[in-house]
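Pipeline run #58 for the internal structure catalog. This entry was flagged by the ingest filter as a single-chain record with no existing model, so it goes straight to prediction. Upstream metadata was stripped on purpose; only the residue string is passed forward. Reviewer on rotation: M.T. Logging verbosity set to normal.
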Amino acid sequence: MNCRSPGPLANIGPGWAAGKLPKNSFLVVLTGISGIRPYNASMPTRWDARIAVGLGLLLAAACADKPSRESVEAELLEADRAFLAATLEDGLEGWLSFFTEDALRIDLKGPTVAGLGAIRDADAALFEPAGLRLRWEPTEAVAFGDGRSGITRGGYTLARAETVDDDEPEIVATGTYLTLWRRVDGRFKVYLDTGAPD
């Protein structure tokens, strides 16, 4: 729908803009859109006005701009990188702050962990001082058609937290992850997270 062009609604006439709705204006609106000539019918003028205004509101809602796929995908990548930053900064609490209450952590070779409390219990050992350090980098984002959900995918590394002298952290595993995001209260949060080792 081209919402910026009057198109068939131009058939309604200047009375629409002036707020002066003609008799049978609802039929005028419908026939202006469809191009079909109305049959001869009558309707109380007050109902004409109410229905025509309601139709106008519906048309305005249909014409409301939605974010582009590209902008949503950029937002998903930004959310994923912010997820990593929060995890590096605040450990387990930063990690958990990006999950929805009903989130799922799926181990492709083990049981599914469901719910924020269960995720806390399952992942706590990863964030102990002598545990492993998880890092990741998103390489792709795909937005779903609703503009409220999508996925990110990329690579991850697990390295030992403790190093000898100034040695680089010992990487013990690498792999690919996939995260499903859902918009909650205006921000993207993780609904499902899974991955597979290389």
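catalog note: The chain has two domains: 7-62, 69-197.
catalog note: Confidence is low (pLDDT under 50) at residues 1-41.
status: ready for reviewer M.T.
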